[in-house]
Amino acid sequence: TDMVVAIDNFFGCYLLYSRNSKYKGRTYIGFTVNPERRISQHNAGASKGGAYRTSGRGPWDMTMIVHGFPSDIAALRFEWAWQNPKRSRRLKHITCKTRKESMFQYRIRIMSNMLTQTPWKKLPLTVQWLKQEYAVDLTPLPPNHMPIMYGPVSAKVKKHKKSMAKQSKSCLTSSTCCTLCNVSLPVNVENAPSILKCPNESCNMASHLLCLAKHFLSNKFDQLLPVDGYCPSCNDSLLWGALIRQ
Amino acid sequence: MAGSTPKSVVQHKDNVMQSPMNVSDLSAIFPQNETERSNKPQFKTPKRESLSESANSDYESDPPAEKLPFQNLTEETSNTNSTPGCAKDFSETLELDSVLIRALEEADNVQGGSKHNDNFKTPKMKTRSKKTSDMVPITPMPNYSDLDTPEIIKKGQDFGLKKTLGKRKIKTKLKEAFLYNHQVESSSEDEQPDMNDNDKHVAVTSTSPLLLHNYETETESELTMDGADEVNNVVLEISSSDSNDGSDIEELHRTLFVPAASQHYDITSTSGDDVASTEASKIKKKVKPHNVEELGKRLLQMITSDEALYSDILQYKPIYLSQFKRKLETENFRCTSNELLDFLDKQGITFSTADERKEKQTRRKTKRKTKI
């Protein structure tokens, strides 16, 4: 488990696949804040907190998960649309399941389409294949800022002391002026989520949330939410979602 | 006069106690129950005494009448362990029931001041004896909101409700059905023909609506609970710790987020009355942009000029649609809800319609109430 990167504020939507010969090919779409715990619940049955639809129809494999949702609301909306593509006002264009398609393939197709679709295409999401045998190429491919990863994932249950210490240290050493507008930043950074810093350790760029957003959106006047951009100091490519996550 | 009243109460108590006595006689056939049998009179007698005592004290120094049933309740529950079977339970509910009714009647008497009326005691006895023979006990409403999904669906199917109706709707329908079936049995029907006194009639009619009202408020509060309140709680729980498990949220989102994407909201339709009424809104109508691009530009401008809102959006915090709409209204901005949703989607802004749905529900409820 040491190899697995634990993720803070985990919100994910996953796709289960039944290995039960009686229910072969069954799938289930769910939402979780802790994928490891959730799959064990599904496999333990309804009495252990598994969903009724999955209870007694296991063993289930958690094939893949889309995570990185900034809030549970965002993730739950994704889940609902994924489960109900015909009812969602955003997925009317997706064609029905074909005969050749298995339910699993159909649901993967829906998911791939959703990732390229508003409102999800701008979210800092990650597609993670949890079991190698299920991994397939996504068509259409998700936007560039969404990484496709392989291997297990786990949610961070508690905040690490180390990262907390790091944060406070970096707060002390940082310059007190916004790199972009030169106005001094508030010293007590912990209470001010409106300050962003370059994750590059050798770079000490720090700026107001609004300033950096403006900088990232300088050539996209019709946008409100930046997806990515370059650090005004070290010119590293940065993802807005990663900056907010910090 | 005051001395005669408690006597009649005790007599009546004996009538009610008959059924458990029979049970204990039956149990005497089985040898293993001998100890129980020997125990029985021991705790029955003090119970009777305590009842008569409490009745006495009731009449001497009129305490609040609600106290009486609660005292009995605790007594009964402590006794149930050693008594056999369902017959006892049944009699208990009867007993409780009668105690409740008596308490209500007594309360009414105290109000009406006809406590010392002799005509009033005898019919009361009659109704009691009648009840023991053919009255159906008031069963408490099963806790539908706590039931598991398959059970809810099953119970719904008993009433001919389809599976596809959804848990939340099935629950509310079940509650309605329960009220429909059970208000008849709430002891008012049985008693009404026997009523001679005006006082009593008032007492009965006042009890049943009270019960009904309680149920109604219960269901209503649960409806609203299904709305934003519960979500907020859950949201808090998730963000603060991982103690909450996904399954709860799974259920929640199904009820909450379904209409968000499938329904088409329309600001103009909901606030259409306002538009017609005021002159200022006519000007607003003119202001309404016809072009989608123009509308987008104006919305962009509006959001970026509101620093707090914009920084929330930049941090991916979900915005609440009804709040946002209110803001639009204050800024004399008009557009259809679909246009607004399209804009927010295009910008990748997460919004929640939970609060809006709650508002709609409350609106509907108030309408219903005013109609009735």
UniProtKB/TrEMBL annotation, chain A:
Protein's UniProt keywords contain Cytoplasm: no
Question: Would the keyword Chloroplast turn up in this protein's UniProt record?
Answer: no
* E.C. number: 3.1.-.-
One annotated GO molecular function: crossover junction DNA endonuclease activity
Alphabetized, the UniProt keywords read: DNA damage, DNA recombination, DNA repair, Endonuclease, Hydrolase, Metal-binding, Nuclease, Nucleus, Zinc, Zinc-finger
Looking up Pfam families in the UniProt record yields:
GIY-YIG, SLX1_C
Q: Where is the GIY-YIG domain?
A: 9-94
Q: Which coenzymes or cofactors are required?
A: a divalent metal cation
Task: State its location(s).
Answer: Nucleus
User: What does the subunit section of this Swiss-Prot or TrEMBL entry state?
Assistant: Forms a heterodimer with a member of the SLX4 family.
Q: Which family does it belong to?
A: Belongs to the SLX1 family.
What is the protein name stated in its UniProt record?
A: Structure-specific endonuclease subunit SLX1 homolog
Name the species this protein comes from.
Answer: Ciona intestinalis
Automatic annotation (TrEMBL), chain B:
What domain of life is recorded for the organism?
Eukaryota
Q: Does the keyword Nuclease apply?
A: no
Q: Where is the composition biased (Low complexity)?
A: 74-83
CDD domains cross-referenced by the UniProt entry: SAP_SLX4
Record's keyword terms, sorted: DNA damage, DNA recombination, DNA repair, Nucleus
Q: Region Disordered: which residues?
A: 1-89, 107-149
Record-linked InterPro entries: Structure-sp_endonuc_su_Slx4
Q: Does the keyword Membrane apply?
A: no
Q: Which GO terms describe its cellular component?
A: Slx1-Slx4 complex
- GO terms under biological process: DNA recombination; DNA repair; DNA replication
**Compositionally biased intervals (Polar residues):** 16-33
Q: Any idea where this protein resides?
A: Nucleus
Its main localization is nucleus
Family, per entry: Belongs to the SLX4 family.
Protein name as it appears in the record: Structure-specific endonuclease subunit SLX4
Q: Which organism is it from?
A: Ciona intestinalis (Transparent sea squirt)
